[in-house]
Amino acid sequence: MAIKITMPRLSDTMTEGTVATWLKKVGDKVSEGDILAEIETDKATMEFESFNEGTLLYIGIPEGETAPVDSLLAIIGKEGEDISSLISGGAETADATSAATEEKKEEVAAPTATTITSLPKGLVVVTMPRLSDTMTEGTVATWLKKVGDKVSEGDILAEIETDKATMEFESFNEGTLLYVGIEEGNTAPVDSLLAIIGPAGTDISGIAANHKTGGTPQTAPVSTEEKAVKTEKATEAIVQEGSTDGQRILASPLAKKIASDKGIQLNQVKGSGENGRIVKSDIENFTPASVAPQAAAANTPVKTETNSTPAAKVFVPAGEVFTEEIKNSQMRKIIAKRLAESLFTAPHYNLVIEVNMDDAMKSRAIINSIPDTKVSFNDMVIKACALALKKHPKINSQWREDAIIINHHVNIGVAVAVEDGLVVPVLRFTDAMSLSQIGGNVRDLATRAKNKKLLPTEMEGSTFTVSNLGMFGITEFNSIINQPNSAILSVGAIVEKPVVKNGQIVVGNTMMLSLACDHRTIDGATGAQFLQTLKQYIENPVTMLA
Length: 546
Fold this sequence. Notes:
Oligomer: single chain
Number of helices: 11
């Protein structure tokens, strides 16, 4: 099911955001934790990561555009999923949110001014941010600053657990951390008092009390032992060395903080994030491989020259963005229109079956030993389909709003790839053709299709379609129904692999067939019965002569 992603509130004062850069585009696969976009708030540009996985189906706010918090940012779901209702609903939500935001601004303008003027100069109240689109409360997992610490703009104040992930929360202000409103492990609603930052020595007792009356949970006191441990860790912080190749080390602020506390040099850590970026988990899972050699080296003279291997270079994206625009041909426009109509109007489902090709290979070799005769495996599949359709006419059907049309004649369309796209020439009355006649007609139609010599009448009137990608090494795939047909057969490559025969594992040759059906005309059992008959014909070619 598709999921709507809305513009998050990434800072405590953010009312709208600007999409600076999209790092994913429509159609890209998205994993949980991938960075979707960089979003400019009123204070900084921040990375916004995905808490869901799937395919990016829709982008609601293009690069460079600004939208209020809670506006539709993107939609993630399954590839091909219908999201039209979500898009229209998202637009209505965005309008409502924008109106509500403007109304709220008018309502709270005077009180806000009063509150700000009552605060001592330089004092900033930091509230629990809404770090995801569904977050209503947050839990402080770890404080990376303690009361009395100096705070610079961009420093990580704390790790906050949302309903979806644990995220770093950085400071947009500088000063001294004067007050912590939510201790580690405590949970509080969005907008609760999180911390107070300002000049050292400022009296903040009244401010903290006023915010507590608003429903902020009472804080648990920090034990003396915990304070001692934190102080001890802080004293262990080390200065990070630069990369040995002179390039910048890509690492998140939290990863840098933890590495410094643990005494780990970042140039020794291999990043698992995008473009080799070092993240928190890389530091936590890092085990120095050179501890033992370092201990041994302590008792040996220091050499002036070293042959140590330099650290692997971190890839830094560089180059020129280059795109090319190719005008859509009329054929490509028609293909796009018809396949989109087919996929979004006909409820597709696929049935897959594996066919043993040993006897078919032997039969083909015998047939092709006859002079001036050449039959392909595709010709054998087409012939088998024609005979199976005569036994299962419901597969050879068409859907209309008032009735289902059953075709008792068999006209099989054969998908042929050409330079501009795909065409489907038709073999009329295929069931009456011999294998050699099918082979000759298919070769003739395919050659004229590639030379653009096909007549329009030669591409009309199909009742069933066969698409074969086996010659490209594709073992299995699913096709989109060529309407007004009710089904299309996808033919894969013949693969040599171990198979079980009479209880013994032997080497055999198999081929995968996938039947895409229109559920409006073909039920699952009907499609399965057709595939069973088709399998029987292909595995025992002699039965096609009966």
